[in-house]
Amino acid sequence: MEIEAKFLVSGRDVFDKLMNIDSVSEFSVSDPVLKEFSDTYLDTLDMAIYASGFSFRCRDKKDKVVYTLKSLKSASSLIHMREETEFTLSEKLPVKEWNDCDLKNRVLKMTGSGNLFPLFLVEHKRTDLQVYNRERHVAELSFDDVIIICENNKKSYLELEVELMGDGTEDELHQIAAFFRDEVGLVVGTSSKFDNGLELYMENIQQDAKSLDYGLTPDDVQITFSPIRDMFEEYSIEKEHARKVAENSLMLFDVLKPIHALDENLRQTLRFGALVHDIGVMTDVSTHHKVGRDILLSTCPEDLPYPLCLFLPWMTFLHKKRIDKKKLQKLSQNKNFSRLPLQMQDHILKMSAILRLADALDYSRMDSKIVDIDLEKEDIVIKVKGPGADIDADRADTKADLWRLLFEKDVYFREDY
Questions:
Q1: Residue 67 and residue 392: Cα distance in Å, rounded?
Q2: How far apart are CA 66 and CA 88, in angstroms?
Q3: Which alpha helices (DSSP H) does 118-192 contain, by range?
Q4: Interatomic CA distance for residues 196 and 1, integer angstroms
Q5: What's the predicted TM-score (pTM) here?
Q6: Considering only CA atoms, which of 364, 101, 75, 410 is closest in space to residue 241?
Q7: Distance separating alpha carbons of residues 25 and 35, to the nearest angstrom
Q8: Which residues are paired to 130 by β-bridges?
Q9: Three-state SS at 329
Q10: pLDDT in 10s for each residue of the chain, 417 residues
Q11: 18 Cβ partners below 8 Å, 6+ apart?
Q12: How far apart are CA 386 and CA 367, in angstroms?
């Protein structure tokens, strides 16, 4: 259990002065010790850990790696408590490869077979001071010079954390925290580093939408935005398959970019499209592509802003049935699809072509893995490995029909032995 108070420090001069403080009220303070380290926050593509009420980070220090699972609770009071579980290793390892421990079991229970991906990086220059009441070690002061990095976006700020140590009492922690609030005049912080990083992560998705000018305004449609975890629950979306298709989709998007030439700012849209592509299955499996389209015409994950949300109904509609030129011609005459800008229509078709391949590569539900994508030959060759690789490679070859209609460079799938 982590028990601490957090404060924002507005100026560098105040920050530097406080780092050299020699006492706090009646408590003595040790000499400052400087540390530098970085935290990478991780989650599945459907944010399963976050949806469970936790954050998960990997702290990279000079001589060790510390993984931490921490509960997410809003900090509305001076002192706040968070559940915290740690596991230390000598090097970075996937959670699945750890020795058996409580943290491993808890994380895997949340994530299932889903892989973990970096959300953002937090770089720290931390100065620690220990606080004593005579011989008792009651608290630790951590002055953090923080830089949060999410893709090309950065946020920097200064803060102070006051954490209760084993020999201290909550009354003593409150007394120390009150000193910094009342005597020094610091502002109580209500956001964790994860909160700030997640805000930056979401800000990037908003910027993606702004950078892609399709000439549409929100007045053109009426859409309800809902948390994706609520959509998963309401429509009983198959989580393991959704995650796997999202993982496949992003790998294909990244490696095949020289061919499809889609804007990098559409990557997150593809992720969301993959996560909800089967949203209509439990309503009507035989026509779930149509049911899913109709659901997504009026409902969208809240983290995907307008107009990117307009991609999802049509990606869902196009992911299932065989596609030929006649069907594409019919789609172009659909009143809802045809009113979209031509550039958006083109992007939707290309994203759907990738989604069809990604979906097919998990047709067996046997965790087939893409082990190689060769772009050097006349045709693209994608190698797939796993107990169901032959099934999934065959299915992907069938569902490459839309890819072949859109791109000159053909694609083939091979089982990797």
A1: 35
A2: 4
A3: 170-178
A4: 21
A5: 0.93
A6: 364
A7: 25
A8: 140
A9: helix
A10: 899 999 999 999 999 999 999 999 999 999 999 999 999 999 999 999 999 999 999 999 888 999 999 999 766 689 999 999 999 999 999 999 999 999 999 999 999 989 999 999 999 999 999 999 999 999 999 999 999 999 989 999 999 999 999 999 999 999 999 999 999 999 999 899 999 999 999 999 999 888 988 988 877 678 999 999 999 999 999 999 999 999 999 999 999 999 999 999 999 999 999 999 999 999 999 999 999 999 999 999 999 999 999 999 999 999 999 999 999 999 999 999 999 999 999 999 999 999 999 999 999 999 999 999 999 999 999 999 999 999 999 999 999 999 999 999 999 999 998
A11: 9, 143, 160, 184
A12: 7
Tokens of 44: 């599945």
* Amino acid in the structure at residue 229: R
- Position 3: which residue type? I
Q: How many residues does the chain have?
A: 417
Written as six digits, the tokens of 260 are: 């499809």
